[in-house]
Amino acid sequence: MCLAIPTRLIEIRPGAQALVELGGIRKQISIALVPEVVVGDYVIVHVGHAIGRIDPEEAERTLRMFGELAAQEAQ
Fold first, then answer.
1. pLDDT tens digits, residue range 10-28?
2. Which sequence ranges form a coiled-coil region, renumbered to this chain (predicted)?
């Protein structure tokens, strides 16, 4: 099974690269598969590649669920 995480795109860089941020962590990823993205979009990231755009409301809902799961694991 694969896990893809929604993250917010904060900067587009040369060479089909971009910077995303999730929970204060920033990571450079490839946007070669989704060249239409713009700063502020949420993208689904899998192994360093944006594989699709996601609706902001759906992204926030998914991130909330991941947060709830993490909180349960910590107990």
1. 999 999 999 999 889 999 9
2. none
For the entire predicted model, the pTM comes to 0.84
Q: Which two tokens stand for residue 64?
A: 């909330």
Q: Which amino acid is at 16?
A: A
Rg (CA), the chain: 13
Of the candidates 4, 33, 38, the one whose C-alpha atom is nearest the C-alpha of residue 16 is 33
| Nearby residues of 10 by Cβ (< 8 Å), 6 or more positions away | 19, 20, 21, 26, 39
CATH of 6-73, one of 3.20.20.110, 2.70.50.80, 2.60.320.10, 2.30.30.140: 2.30.30.140
Residue 21 in tokens:
């941020």
